[in-house]
Write a structure and sequence with these properties.
Length: about 600
């Protein structure tokens, strides 16, 4: 929209919070998307307690009914934590993660609770926390499992927890509470609203004490298109025209309320209509800071990282990230080595260098499909006289780079197969093993033996190193190419690599290339011999950070993946980790 590729978009209110202070996003709110015009907000959240509670501070030491830590049905982590952030003193024990500090504070404040459902995206840590803070599951119907199958889990379950007299206070949606009390025919005189000012009020649903309200999804557009979009939205309401119905369906069949053009709001003014909503995202941080410094290497990566930061904050991800740009990838590795940065996403071929600098992976990026896995192979022409890796002695080779994944895979294999000393300079040993070679970009390394780049030609440079190395094979310059098969298969007919049965009536094509193995292998098998396979990349940190710090960053990344990754439940957020960004693929993270 900012690049004028579209005229308007639909945002969740959290996403509006994320962009409201960004000078790049000069937008106006034109419409709300809701089922009925008289509905002023999507829902309101209240605290309901038994009548023996006289004021808010009386709930200390009582039993809590909580809908769960995870986001469900537009119930974000910020909504989940809102009550406790206002009434429970914040803990910042440096020996606990930020999330465990929260759990620990809840455990101390309440005698017991039912907070069923997942506490962490990591199942092991989830189990450890529930075992350590058992009183926060003690009020559940099944305290030993404390999961989403518990009858007191979720927006409905939390009300049964309260009205079954299991808990003393419940943190609930007002609309669901109103329906529950009516359908279950529960006497409202036995309960009270807890109010943000510390007082209590009778449970009269028409006069609630609201703690926080959730706005509706909204339509935003650039300032120059606002009048046009607002007029169009008026025309599509309650219409039977085909294209207008299609527009409504794209926006999930909400009723569209029209906003007078004269009162179109900038994001901050629109959000101010919902007291406490924006302030809920401005919680205090621990000191010293737990913020994570993320290193990036381009303007585009910096913008995407900043977008991730804004989205993570409004969805309650902790710790917060801050994005810093270095001039190149080598500088980012050095910055983490020197503890000037905390994390950096490295490519597979950079992992060895990262380890040599004292960096260690925290988490790996894995392919969703087997064909997207990086598969490193040694490829020769089909009529070659080479049949195993050892046969290559004295041959001509091409590598994608010095100490690339293919280079390292070959060196490791030969070290394991050979009686010779392969532990000295890998460059010297490879140079002696092959007659002549082209190690792409080796001209940048003047210390490498001359024959490692004697076959390189200036007119054969490619942006893709794997295709570049493969070109040397197809051109007959080298006898073997060490490449990522995934990259080659996208540009070369897969049939060129594998034998197919010959139909005696119709002669089919024959392969042009073979994949060498460690020993003599059946070249007709479907799965080729792999020298190595790799992840799509890794997020690394300094190996000397504490286990607690590593754990905290790991959980932060898991939560980002859950909220913005490939397996999102419910409506897609405006920001996605692995999708194209500003029309560009593989920014920070690979699309695969």
């Amino acid at each position: 929209m900012i690049e004028n590729n579209v005229d308007f978009t639909v945002l969740e209110p959290e996403e509006l919070v994320a962009i409201k202070n960004y000078y790049l996003y000069k937008v106006l709110v034109t419409n709300e998307l809701k089922p009925a015009q008289y509905e002023t907000e999507r829902f309101q959240v209240v605290a309901i307690a038994h009548k023996n509670v006289q004021r808010i501070w009386d709930i200390k030491g009582k039993r809590l009914c909580h809908p769960g830590f995870n986001a469900i049905d537009n119930w974000s982590r910020v909504f989940s934590t809102y009550l406790e952030n206002l009434i429970i003193p914040k803990e910042c024990d440096s020996n606990m993660t930020l999330f465990e500090n929260r759990v620990h504070a809840l455990s101390k404040f309440f005698e017991m609770a039912c907070i069923a459902g997942p506490w962490s995206s990591d199942t092991i840590f989830d189990y450890q926390l529930k075992s350590k803070y058992k009183n926060l599951c003690a009020a559940c119907d099944n305290p030993s499992s404390c999961y989403i199958t518990d009858q007191y889990y979720g927006e409905q379950g939390v009300l049964f927890c309260l009205t079954d007299n299991v808990g003393d206070v419940a943190w609930v949606r007002l609309d669901i509470a109103r329906t529950h009390f009516k359908e279950q025919m529960i006497v409202t005189q036995d309960y009270k609203f807890l109010c943000p000012d510390g007082t209590t009020k009778p449970l009269i649903f028409d006069k609630p004490c609201v703690w926080i309200s959730k706005p509706w999804p909204i339509i935003v557009t650039t300032m120059q298109n606002a009048a046009k979009v607002a007029d169009m939205m008026k025309s599509v309401s309650n219409t039977t025209f085909c294209w207008r119905n299609t527009v409504l369906q794209l926006m999930e069949n909400y009723y569209i309320t029209s906003t007078d053009i004269d009162t179109l709001d900038i994001p901050s003014d629109y959000l101010s209509r919902f007291p406490s909503f924006v302030s809920a995202y401005a919680q205090s941080d621990c000191r010293p800071s737990r913020d994570v410094r993320w290193c990036v290497v381009s303007d585009l990566e910096l913008r995407k990282c900043d977008s991730l930061r804004a989205a993570s904050i409004v969805y309650g991800v902790q710790p917060k990230i801050y994005c810093f740009q270095e001039k190149n990838r080598e500088s980012c590795l050095k910055a983490i080595q020197d503890n000037l940065m905390d994390i950096f996403f490295v490519q597979p071929e950079e992992l060895l260098e990262a380890r040599m600098k004292g960096l260690k992976p925290i988490i790996h990026a894995m392919a969703n499909a087997k064909e997207d896995v990086n598969r490193i192979v040694a490829v020769v022409r089909v009529n070659s006289t080479f049949y195993t890796i050892k046969d290559l002695k004295g041959a001509r080779a091409s590598f994608t780079g010095y100490r690339s994944v293919g280079w390292n895979a070959f060196v490791t294999l030969m070290r394991n197969m050979s009686d010779r000393n392969w532990d000295c300079s890998d460059a010297q040993v490879v140079a002696k093993f092959f007659k002549n070679s082209c190690v792409l970009d080796s001209n940048n390394n003047k210390e490498l033996p001359v024959n490692l780049h004697s076959l390189c030609k200036k007119d054969m440079k490619r942006a893709n190193d794997d295709l570049g190395a493969f070109d040397y094979l197809t051109s007959g310059i080298v006898d073997v190419a060490f490449v990522n098969l995934k990259a080659i298969e996208k540009n070369v007919n897969v049939g060129d690599f594998y034998h197919e049965k010959i139909d005696h009536k119709h002669v089919n094509w024959m392969p042009k290339y073979r994949i060498l193995g460690q020993t003599l292998i059946d070249t007709s098998r479907e799965i080729p011999y792999l020298l190595a396979w790799t992840t799509l990349g890794s997020i690394v940190s300094n190996e000397n950070i504490t286990d607690l710090r590593r754990q905290e960053i790991y959980f932060m990344l898991l939560e980002m993946d859950r909220l913005f990754g490939k397996k999102i439940k419910g409506q897609l957020p405006a920001f996605l980790l692995y999708e194209p960004y500003d029309g560009n693929l593989n920014i920070i993270f690979p699309v695969s």
